[in-house]
Design a protein that fits this description.
about 150 residues; alpha+beta; Arc Repressor Mutant, subunit A; Dna Ligase, domain 1; three-stranded antiparallel beta sheet; 6 strands; globular
């Protein structure tokens, strides 16, 4: 998404458009990699030497709340982030390696998986009178490379 569209979304939210916010969105728009706050900070430090790690954390929190980013908990207290784009038509889940932190986007759902998710959403909606608009599912385990290292 070009920066002018990001700025427009910010104007409507009451939040200011700042250089760190633009830098983080630009960085994540140029990679398919899931990045941690520290990785984002290290990448931006070369371009914006004055940026602070606290600024990166606060900005990521705001961008996630505004719907620009998807936060992926690694289970170790650390999170990784991915940009949500207009072209993200394919819903995906994540396979997260608890050994190395690798994240695999999982999109090749079989019919049984889709049916189970629909049934679960329907049941939760009825039981709790809750309108579900989206969901995130993360599977934790050990990736193929880490299994080979054992």
């Amino acid at each position: 998404m070009p920066s002018h569209k990001w700025r427009k979304r910010f104007r409507g939210s009451g939040s200011r458009w700042t250089a760190p916010r633009e830098a983080i969105l630009n960085l994540l728009s140029k990679t398919s990699k899931h990045m941690s706050a520290k990785e984002i900070y290290q990448a931006l430090l070369r371009i914006y030497p004055g940026i602070g790690l606290t600024t990166v954390y606060r900005t990521l929190d705001l961008l996630e709340k505004m719907g620009f980013l998807n936060k992926i908990p690694l289970g170790s207290g650390e999170n990784k982030y991915e940009l949500i784009t207009e072209s993200d038509q394919t819903h995906h889940h994540h396979l997260i390696c608890t050994q190395c932190g690798k994240i695999i986007d999982y999109t090749d759902f079989v019919d049984e998986e889709l049916e189970l998710i629909k049934k679960t959403e329907k049941s939760l909606k009825q039981r709790h009178r809750f309108q579900i608009t989206d969901h995130n599912i993360e599977f934790y385990g050990v990736c193929e490379q880490c299994q080979k290292r054992r």
